[in-house]
Amino acid sequence: MPGNHEITRKALALSSAALLALAAPACTTPGASAEGTAGTPATVDTISQGDKTQGAEAHPQLVAEFGGAVTGPQASYVETVGKTIAVQSGLSNARGDFTVTLLNSPVNNAFAIPGGYVYVTRQLTALMNNEAELAGVLGHEVGHVAARHSAKRQKAATRNSVIGVLGTILSGVLLGDSTFGRLGQQVFSQGSQLLTLQYSRTQELEADNLGIEYLRRAGYDPRAMSTVLESLARQNALEARLRGTTSQVPEWASTHPDPASRVRDALVRAGTAANGMTNRDTFLTRIDGLVYGDDPRQGIVDGARFTHPDLRLAFEAPTGFYMVNGTQSVSISGESGKAEFSAGAYNGSLDAYIRAVFASLTETNQQRIVPEVIQTATVNGIPAAYGSARVQASSGPVDLVVFAYDFGGGKAYHFVTITQAGGAGVFNPMFKSMRRISASEAGAVRPRVLDVVTVKSGDTVQSLSARMAYDDAKLDRFLVLNGLKADQRLVPGQKVKLVTY
After folding, report:
1. Check whether domain 296-443 has CATH 3.40.1000.10, yes or no
2. Whether domain 448-500 has CATH 3.10.350
3. 362 versus 219: which is more confidently predicted?
4. Is the pLDDT of residue 116 over 50?
5. Nearest 10 degrees: Cα torsion 417, 422, 427, 428
6. How many Cβ atoms are within 10 Å of 442's Cβ, its own excluded?
7. What residue ranges do the domains of the chain occupy?
8. How confident is the model at residue 19 (pLDDT cuts 50, 70, 90)?
């Protein structure tokens, strides 16, 4: 959640629409092709002026959606690799025609848009283990653009807002990252992420194949596409296990091949023999020090607790729920309900504030939603108010609750929750847990960072993983982060990644 306390009603409407979509049955994207055999598709070989104009307009909005751009030597390195692989697409021979951005986001994501704009998050970059993997991921996304996959699905676009325009041009998530997977086909606040989930299985496999071809052209080991997909699959599985969810595949990835199902295809396409550079040590050295996980400026999720040192607040998710922090909000997900914590424009009246949130839901879903009654309360000394409404969804009646807090100084924050009818009480402990935090508590919040270390004689996966900055699953996290197996022996001089404070 951002340090900027206010978001527009349009943003509120977008994020709140996700709540109502949760009760709807899963569906595939209109016009998306079903399972099929994908080869290397025909591609375009120019960046048109129209694409440049459209991309330039969308770029600042996308950067803002994903937490801003990382700057400094790490970002410069990613930019260099991204431009190297992007020119292999033939869209342009001029490296200057491409803009490659390392995004300050804790979500595993990468995408590209027409006009020469390519993006990867710091979280996904940290999961990689060599330069060829980075090139492969970015090449995959450029492949979507070169194959004009977005143009082939523009007819399915139904939004007319700026976000809707982005929806017709975004190139798509490589992964299907599980951090937002429990939210169905729509995603809290990460509007741009929502609109990158609409490629068919065939198109995703085509982009894999193009990425592999670009790796070959650039002199990289083409097997890197399969290894990064394997890391993504293992990360999905680990996150599912840590959250206690039964599915390792994001629910909204039904039209996208799970990374695990693409590993074999990518390896067959690339061949099993080593025949290209990986630049592993260079890559690890250059990404050393990246922030890993949540940025304290956007708040920190630590288990069931969310703490925002700048906003000076904290709350806890109900038992059995997990949280994901976004650039505009925090999502709270569980089997019995979903919720979002965010902020809005505030004029000093909680009653008006709550009604405005409900009105934004109405605008989005074309169904008039008003609270039955708005009641006042005090939570840990904070003035609060809440309202509820019952809405008929496709799967039956659901209860919506808006619970808002007045933090003074013209600042207010709120939860929006959705449950099956009669189940809203599951979030009462969370509503009651909201509290202000002290200056000392805020100052104690520290970011996790990527620490690349050199293996010494006597180091083992067990001894190094014990240094990971987590209270649980230290070994599993270490193994997945480094693409290692539990029985794998480390070699002195080898570089590995740790996550430390």
Report:
1. yes
2. yes
3. 219
4. yes
5. 130
6. 18
7. 43-288, 296-443, 448-500
8. very low
